[in-house]
Structure formats: structure tokens, C-alpha cells
Amino acid sequence: MSRQPRLIYSSFFLAIALSQVPRWAESWSTSRSWVGGTLQPRSSSLLTTMMSSPQMSMSKTTSKLLVLGGTGFLGQAVCKRAIIEGYEVTSLSRRGLPPYRPDNSADTKSTLDKVDYRQGDALVPESINNILNEGGYVGIVHCIGLLFDDESGLGELNQFVSGSGSLPSAKSSYDTITRQTAFNAIECAIDYTLDAAMETPLPFCFTSAAEAGWPDVPGGEFVERRLTPDFLKRYLAAKRAVESKLMQSKPKLRPIIA
Fold this sequence. Notes:
By secondary structure, the protein is α/β, with parallel strands linked by helices. It has helices at residues 3-28, 46-51, 54-58, 73-85, 106-112, 125-132, 158-161, 174-195, 220-227, 230-247, and strands spanning 33-35, 38-40, 64-68, 88-93, 116-119, 137-142, 202-206, 253-257.
């Protein structure tokens, strides 16, 4: 299929998906929040779920949090909340500094100025290891994501929907941007717990998607098989692969899937 027909095809189903998915997510998302491997009612806020981790709450005033993708829309919100909660926050992203937003309030700008922004690529494990090896980290949050990859034919829309206004390259797929970066981070986190001889599991929060739980609810498999466009299936496959990998990381890590 050529790029142009694919764009038309994807756009048609995108219109359907965007009109229906919020309803599905709202009614089915109660099964999609896991904390430490225990099923929890899905929180209305990722940040509430993440900050509810006991280990992170115990020492937040003197401990560090690593946010992967901290310059994106979700990542900036996580960084801001973590600073307010008393953490020292390090952000790792390819762009380094967040995009300038003139509409940010003075309080938001002041809070985000306290984040330690690092430039690096989570596809390169050394970028993550170099930060963790500094020590003092009590939690990791993976916020790296891609709404439309290049193969979807909708990649150019990311400049409007992405928090950093980034455009995907030809190699930017859901598998590389979501799955591979998360797999790298999980493996680096496990190594970190071993090197630090941590006695308790290290909280690792992965920002998944409510729709990844469609197979677990009535009608979900039908929706995914018959109504979901290919790009969304690939998006969910990457999310599910990370969820599975993270759940297998116990007891070294404490999975938080939000």
C-alpha cells in the first residue's frame, strides 16, 4: 500500500477510534492499573498511582526520581508533580531541555526549573546507566511514547499532539520508541538494584494504555480484531510487551503499570 492510501485509510479509522476509544477506556479501564503486581482500581491520575508507592513515599524528601521522556507532555507533568512532592528529579530525553511554552504559569516555570534535564537516548542503555550509577534513585518513571509512528502514515501529526512537538524518523516505530526503550530501562534498573544491593524492590512505573486491557474485558477482543486500525494494534502490542517484561522483573523491581 502506498503512503498516500495508507494515510487515507489510517485517517478514516483514526476518526472512528478517536470518537469511540474514550468511551471504551472510561468503561473498561478499571482493570488496567497494577501496583506491585497487584490489581488496583484504575486511578484517575497516573501521578496518584505512582506516588502511592510506599517505598517512594517514605523517603521522597531526600531521594531522586528518574523520569524517562521528561520533556514530553506527560513527562513534564510527572516532573512537576514529583518536584512538588519533594523529590529531586532527573529527566532523560533526546532533546534535553523541554520546549519553551509561553503559556506556562510562573509557578510551573519555577517548578520545572528545578528539574535536572539530561540529553540522551534511552535506546542506548549507557545513557540510562550513567545516570543511575550516580546513586540515590528510589524510582523510575517511563514516559517515552509515540502516538503515531512513521509506518502509520500519520507521523506528521505528532508535531501537533506531541508535548515536545517532535516528528518521528523513519526508524521511529512503536517497537523501538516504546518497547525497546522500556526494555533497556527495565534491564538497567535491575542492574542498578543489584549493584546497590537494594533490600527492597525498586518502583518502576510504566505509562501504558487502558486499551491494552481490551482482551480482558467482554467485547474487547472483537473491538480489537474488527474495529481497530493496524497502527493502533501495533501501538498496543508494544505496550503489552513492556507490561509483560515489567511483571517478570519482580522481585528486583516493583511494577507500577498506569
